[in-house]
Design a protein that fits this description.
Radius of gyration: 21 Å
Largest sheet: 8 strands, mixed
Distance between the termini: 15 Å
Order of helices and strands: EHEEEHEHEHHEHEEHEHEHEHEHEHHH
Low-confidence stretches: none
Mean pLDDT: 96
Structural class: alpha/beta
Strand order of the largest sheet: 3-4-2-1-5-6-7-8
Number of strands: 14
Helix content: 25-40%
Strand content: 15-25%
Length: about 375
């Protein structure tokens, strides 16, 4: 089977035009890892960039080809990605895939798939219409435009891969068919912990994600202040990129400073996969308390390293945490209950969980998810 996967080459949004290798979002990257074990799948990955790449590999694996398409700036957001759609369509006519899979409705990928002229499916990574509604995104803002384009794409595809019950509930009224398929975990998170990573003696908690209003790190700093006033010995490390020109990131930085001075909190800019895994293996728990979450891949990653989990009961998070020993979920604004549970856990020795990693391997291994993709592709092609 010949499959075209349309996804974001992150060298474009991060402006890394001199990087010789493409890199992708965590979920598409893990899916491609699964496809490498399925020789019956010939996969063609397509990514658009505003500048020509200095170099790009022709292959990412023996059965995975890569195509970098240069699309001038005029063909991006200001023209609703029409340049990207046309360039993708030309390349697909050369490849002649059996099916096209658009990864995400945030940018050009979904539009490229539904206007490709080939049988196509989409994966929802972020629920753009819901995010725009929740945050009352201004007209012509990025989120407002993405929400409208999502509504253009969903009715035009053969079906949508939904990574959680929450996502499925939002998507079902707007598309022909849905399948519940979780995001896969990258293989690195499923390997045994390295024995040379020392575990911190004091309680170390992680929060992983970009510093944004949706991830609510400022509110977590308020929780940290309450824990500190109780004399508890702990540190919360916030790992993720922050744009300190944004008001929320500025508020986070200002709130962080006094806790950073006493050693109770710290911000680490975005780090690589190996470094993140080492941070997880050295820590005791993860706090993830967003106001909206399609799936919550970082939760599955942390549980794959047997971290104790404190999270919010919304979006796709309950799907992941269900049946995991010691995982604690709270209502969306129940900061008091979260603080009380953290206090009790720290005082009782802040132990990690056991058995979660095995469960994550059973549910989210990239090979398992890739096989499910092939089953769905065959279903779609049979109906075509």
């Amino acid at each position: 089977m010949k499959i075209a996967v349309l996804t974001t080459d992150n060298r474009e949004p991060y402006r890394q035009y001199d990087n010789p290798k493409p890199w992708f979002g965590t979920a598409p990257e893990a899916l491609l890892q699964g496809f490498t074990h399925l020789p019956e799948a010939e996969v063609h990955v397509i990514g658009c960039t505003q500048r020509p790449m200095i170099s790009s590999p022709e292959k990412l694996a023996p059965n995975i080809f890569f195509h970098s398409l240069h699309v001038p700036k005029i063909g991006w957001g200001r023209t609703l990605f029409q340049g990207c759609v046309r360039a993708t369509k030309r390349k697909l006519r050369e490849i002649k895939p059996d099916i096209v899979h658009g990864q995400g409705t945030e940018r050009e990928c979904a539009l490229g798939a539904v206007f490709s002229g080939f049988p196509n499916v989409l994966t929802i990574h972020g629920n753009m219409a819901e995010i725009a509604r929740m945050f009352r995104s201004p007209i012509t803002s990025y989120q407002w435009i993405a929400a409208r384009l999502e509504n253009v794409a969903l009715p035009r595809t053969a079906g949508v891969f939904c990574n959680s019950a929450y996502t499925e509930s939002l998507v079902t009224p707007r598309t022909k068919k849905t399948w519940r398929v979780a995001n896969p975990l990258r293989q690195e998170f499923l390997k045994q912990s390295s024995a040379d990573v020392p575990r911190h003696s004091r309680c170390l908690l992680l929060n992983v994600g970009a510093i944004t209003e949706r991830k609510r790190q400022v509110e977590l700093l308020e929780v940290a202040e309450k824990l500190k006033r109780q004399g508890l010995d702990f540190e919360i490390r916030f790992i993720g990129r922050a744009f300190f020109s944004a008001p929320y990131a500025i508020a986070f930085r200002d709130r962080l400073k006094p806790l950073e001075a006493t050693g109770h909190a710290r911000h680490i800019p975005e780090i690589g996969t190996a470094e993140l895994i080492r941070e997880m293996d050295a820590a005791h728990g993860l706090i993830h308390f967003p106001s909206e979450e399609a799936f919550g891949l970082v939760v599955a990653e942390a549980l794959a390293r047997d971290l104790k989990f404190f999270g919010v009961r919304l979006g796709g998070i309950p799907d992941i945490a269900e049946g995991i020993p010691g995982a604690e979920l709270f209502d969306g604004d129940d900061w008091r209950e979260l603080t009380d549970s953290l206090t009790a856990w720290i005082r009782q020795g802040h132990s990690r969980t056991t058995g979660a990693a095995k469960r994550m391997r059973e549910l989210y291994h990239p090979l398992i998810i890739a096989r499910r993709h092939l089953e769905i592709y065959r279903e779609v092609l049979a109906k075509s």
